[in-house]
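Response to reviewer comment R2.3. The reviewers asked that we include at least one raw input/output pair. We reproduce the pair for Methionine gamma-lyase family protein here without editing.
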Amino acid sequence: MPLQISDRVRALAAQAQAEVREQFDRIDAIAEENSLKVLSAFQKHRVAEGYFAGTTGYGYDDLGRDKLEEIYADIFGTEDALVRIGFVNGTHAIACALFGALKPGDVLVSAVGAPYDTLLGVIGVVDKGPGSLKSYGVEYRQVEFLDNAPDPEGLARAVRDPRVKAVLIQRSKGYSTRASLSVAEIGALCRVVRANNPQAAILVDNCYGEFVETTEPTQAGADLVVGSLIKNPGGGLAPTGGYIAGRKDLIEAAAARLTVPGIGKECGSTLGNNRLLYQGLFLAPHTVAQAVKTAIFAARMMEQLGYRTEPTSSQVRHDIIQMIHFGAPDPLKRFCKGIQFGAPVDSYVTPEPWDMPGYDCPVIMAAGAFIQGASIELSCDAPMREPYTAYLQGGLTYESGKAGVLLAVEELLRAER
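Raw output as returned:
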């Protein structure tokens, strides 16, 4: 049975798509440049079919794993990288990077307000159980946004304390309503830190931002970038895992947290997943472009219906996330229901808010993905609290992402009939 999309919604879609054509052309140009960069790295490192074989047990001498880490370092312009299926999510990878960079008595500064909800327990801002940075004697401070923009003067003051050994910059907005950061803005913050505390390590939570621009934060002054393989760089194929790329000493320290001191990067079997990690990375620039197009199209559709969006459909993007402000719980839930209808997996399921681990309020999540929790696949989630903002992301193909948005709009309009 064909998808039930009314003539009205199809007409709105045609108008929206025509109005964002210039944006789409710009995104295609970015995807082309990033695809050439990835292809060049594959060829430079002489990727061969033999690298796709996996290892078991300890994972000693996994040539495919080690070569992939060289390729990540090349793409991100860094000395070294750690790319492992042993990272259970992006938060795990960020935690390893932070624990590697900090020791008891040190101070961690967040440069752009509170980080993503799941990191609050890692830091110890909220009590999520034993093992936080706070419990190991690491102090935490944060510099709030000023007029919806980073506060460089506040950051300069915050990092002058010689005990500040690490500065965390979150590229994406998370569940806040601030703007996501461009690589240029991250570079400006890096220069502030360098000028006031040259010894502090600068770590960037790069989740949702990889390949949205033609450069990455490590090419603008960051010491480390960290992310999840089931988001942008996995290209929709990586089954799990995360990555850290940056300074060699910080990579070694993070690897010692992922495994143990004395083993670090030497162990870690890949269990036959190398092919998916390589192919996913190769597809990532194109896949990310599909997700960005889906976000822009969704913004324009919702703007036509009178909803407020951030970023707007005409703004330049720095990550794949699209905010839609509903102002009330009912339209938010209906929109998520429609997104779920557009999924290739579990399309018959109706999403309901639930107490998701790591969050301080019920969260509704619409996602019918081939990889559980893969944010590069079309999904929509929202904390059930004011201002009842939905966070839409992903879309393995623009065509399928567009269909999901149309079904979500259809579900919204159905309530008005």
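The first helix runs from residue 7 to 19. The first strand starts at residue 80 and ends at 84. Further pairs are available on request from the corresponding author.
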